[in-house]
Fold this protein.
Amino acid sequence: MLQTYRAATVQEAIRLAKAELGPDALILEVRRISPLVPGQSREGTVEIRAVAAHHQGQSISRSDTPVAGSRAGEPTVRHLPLLAATDRKLQSLGIGPALAQRLARAYDATRSHPAEERRAALAAIIARHIAFCELPPGRRPAIIALIGPSGVGKTTTIAKLASQLRSRGVRVAMLGLDPNPVTSSLLTAWAAHLRIPSAVAGDRAELAQAVAAAGRADLLLIDTPGCNPYDQAQVKRLRDNLGSRDPIVCCLTLAVTGDTSELVDIGRRFLRLNPTALLLTKLDETRRAASSLGLAEQLRLPLAGLTTGPQVPDDLVPASPAALAELVAWTLDRELRLTTPPVGLVAS
């Protein structure tokens, strides 16, 4: 038998339904309704319709007749399955329950609004939960080392950053911390192509010499070798070569193409090197780009930049609430369209 419940929030209404119908009650519809008291705010005033689990096989009629307390022709907010699907999708991308819930509500409430309004609503929430920073830092000279596992695009990202900053009048030098001539040759090739001074060091002593030789540069970008995060000896070697007391800003670089929970684990293993910023790459190679938000939230590092393709220097953009809101909206638009069946009205 179809039952109706009203409450100030969706969560409260669901609790009422499950308290009476059981924990497996099926929520069929959620509607935003007019306040019972004239002039009262409509925010959070909802009505849901639910049925007990043992009645789910019965035919259920969904009337479009306005319920008591609502106006005829009033917009009907989507059924709960889509709101719940949005929340679940965001949490599956590594976003915490509290932030996922706020984003899901904002996304759901603005689905019928222009895209700019939806993204602005998402960006306002993101700005309150995620820290951002700029590269390079304000001080000069600055030394930035990109650290991270193999294959995340550190070398190409350094080339993008170096090219962008040089075009703004910053004197840049590129340094490679890699004794392997094969892997270090890519950095040398990019430096030659961009006409930027470069050097390659095999250990901490050689790195110190290269830094001293590039003393006139405003910014030194250090490309580090790919490091196996599960090999403690490799992580320690990299930390020792960079030097924990040297004025080097470590920027953790991760590609968003993997499983979010594993990426978080990998990122935490690099925290031994005291990174102060996060840079996320290969957003063009995933359909789960909103996981960038989950990574930034869980690793608790200020987000500095996002790479969106292989082109140097164009495919590197500063991280911002607006950029992450774009990723969240794009991911949800695509994922929910693919995975959620049409279960009811959006707005009449």
